[in-house]
Write a structure and sequence with these properties.
It contains six helices and 13 strands. It is an alpha/beta fold and about 230 residues long. A nine-stranded mixed sheet has the order 4-1-5-6-13-12-11-8-9, sandwiched between helices. Strands 2-3 form a two-stranded antiparallel ribbon. The structure holds manganese (II) ion.
């Protein structure tokens, strides 16, 4: 059995955003992703491939066996019918458009999909849901990403319950979260303050979580990446 090809999304910065870069390259676009994601996919037996933001989603989804929507900056609130809140980061419209189009194609092909952090928020917005634009009590951004900050309760009879059992201690590096849940999604992980931290699609192989399994000490053996790779085979 060949190792499945897992597409990874990422963001875009510019030469000027990179320390010690040449000044003359300040306006040059650079597509980026955190290697924690690709390392976790490799450890789970998949072959990660980065999906450049200029690629046509239709062309690339045809070639993929699975899709990992990674973390990143805030989604433009107009994508879910809201005004830009005072604490919402400057939107990245190129990435929003690209990832939403990727999800269109992945849904059409029923591709196995995993969303992490922004990836979960994106899945929800794609499904017609909305976001809370600022939940600072979940933004533990001054501590290492590997630190577990709170517990999530996991719904029985879900993929997350199969993988983790009834609860899991997780990290928390997000300042936005799901408000209204989108169509076709089922909430399968919540916090005791009422936050939604995990959703699954009722028909398709799609799981999304608000925490960052790729940053935990257990990343190399995290069952979520194994789930994605196994479903992608
Ligand atoms: Mn959290």
């Amino acid at each position: 059995m060949p190792r499945p090809l897992i597409g990874l999304t990422g963001g875009r910065v510019y030469g000027r955003d990179i320390a010690r870069n040449l000044d003359v390259l300040g306006d040059s676009p650079i597509d980026i992703f955190y290697a924690d994601y690709s390392q976790a996919v490799i450890a789970a037996g998949g072959i990660p491939v980065f999906l450049p933001l200029d690629l046509g989603p239709v062309d690339v989804v045809e070639k993929l066996d699975g899709l990992l929507m990674t973390g990143g900056d805030d989604i433009a609130p107009d994508r879910y019918g809201a005004e830009l809140g005072p604490d919402t980061h400057v939107p990245e419209p190129t990435r929003d458009a690209y990832e939403l189009a990727l999800l269109d194609c992945a849904f059409e092909r029923a591709l196995p999909m995993l969303g992490i952090c922004r990836g979960l928020q994106l899945v929800n917005v794609h499904a017609g849901g909305t976001l809370h634009q600022h939940v600072p009590e979940h933004a533990f951004v001054d501590e290492p990403g590997s630190v577990e900050q709170h517990v999530v309760a996991i719904e029985a009879n879900s993929v997350l319950a199969e993988l983790y059992g009834p609860n899991k201690s997780v990290n928390s590096l997000h300042h936005q979260s799901i408000d209204q849940v989108g169509h076709g999604l089922r909430v399968t992980a919540t916090t005791d303050d009422g936050g939604i931290e995990g959703v699954e699609h009722i028909d398709l192989p799609l799981v999304a979580v608000q925490w960052h399994p790729e940053m935990l000490a257990t990343a190399a053996t995290d069952p979520l990446f194994r789930w994605l790779v196994d479903r992608a085979k």
